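FORM 12-B: Structure-to-Sequence Request
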């Protein structure tokens, strides 16, 4: 590749990254991709003649962008994006941001959602979500240990020479940090596999109960299926256009937060303002779901009263 071609390709990559970061301002989330559709979009005969590297990068992004992230339960809506198999076949480094979705592997009815995760080169998850340990606590599994050490190993002269034993400073970007693993170890030890499974299944059941109510309740609409423990819904009165309904939902989020009985967050789904309820606290039960239903109904009625 000539220098000019290389610079154009780098420029194209930068533009893609900038566009992606600009799109995070309102934190929209793409719809779940169909792996078969993604494979069809990428499958074509190898052309006889090549093209400009920047044009090739743009074409790849256009085709692959819907499934380029493999995420078992992203922190907004809890669905699973395709991407593990195409990335693995391409020989790319596949990193899975498992956030809280990794723990669905413990629930027999939902473990299939993580099919393909075993192909990943690295998997990261947050213990401060479904495992309920103090923020901030995350962990990662990396297939190539030497690649991990090469990325983070520091060779500064003032640091002790690394001994032939596991050294945490060679596996993370921090040289000084608190003992995050202690809380995680204690949680795993205290709850055990069965306890964590019960917590995960309870969160999924709570989400399913609330989602069914939101789908049936007048003036509400379910924005996406409640695959795991996240419910994305929206106030959708028949007499409001989409833009007026967006403003209504932003006000509903503020009203629910100010109410004090529950905490929800605002989000954007398919370009429309929506409300997000997450069920991952170990103490949340059916009584709390009933409180959420009542709080949402009260705010809806108050905001929609003539």
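FORM 12-B RESPONSE
SEQUENCE OUT:
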């Amino acid at each position: 590749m000539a220098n000019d071609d290389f610079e154009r390709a780098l420029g194209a990559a930068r533009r893609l990254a900038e566009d992606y970061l600009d799109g995070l301002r309102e934190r929209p989330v793409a719809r779940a991709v169909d792996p078969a559709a993604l494979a069809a979009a990428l499958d074509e005969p190898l052309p006889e003649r090549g093209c400009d590297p920047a044009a090739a990068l743009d074409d790849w992004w256009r085709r692959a962008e819907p499934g380029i992230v493999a995420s078992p339960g992203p922190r907004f809506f809890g669905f699973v994006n395709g991407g593990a198999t195409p990335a693995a076949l391409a020989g790319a480094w596949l990193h899975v941001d498992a956030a809280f979705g990794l723990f669905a592997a413990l629930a027999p009815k939902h473990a299939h959602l993580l099919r393909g995760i075993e192909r990943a080169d690295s998997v990261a998850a947050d213990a401060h979500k479904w495992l309920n340990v103090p923020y901030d606590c995350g962990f990662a599994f990396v297939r190539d240990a030497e690649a991990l050490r090469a990325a983070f190993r520091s060779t500064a002269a003032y640091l002790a020479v690394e001994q032939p034993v596991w050294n945490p400073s060679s596996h993370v970007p921090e040289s000084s940090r608190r003992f995050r693993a202690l809380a995680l170890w204690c949680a795993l030890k205290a709850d055990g596999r069965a306890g964590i499974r019960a917590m995960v299944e309870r969160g999924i059941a709570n989400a399913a109960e609330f989602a069914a109510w939101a789908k049936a309740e007048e003036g509400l609409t379910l924005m996406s299926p409640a695959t795991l423990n996240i419910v994305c819904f929206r106030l959708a009165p028949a007499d409001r256009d989409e833009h007026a309904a967006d403003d209504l939902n932003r006000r509903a989020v503020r009203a629910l937060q100010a109410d004090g009985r529950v905490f929800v967050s605002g989000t954007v789904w398919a370009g429309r303002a929506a409300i997000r309820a997450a069920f991952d606290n170990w103490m949340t039960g059916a009584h709390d779901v009933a409180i959420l239903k009542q709080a949402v109904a009260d705010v809806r009625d108050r905001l929609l009263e003539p």
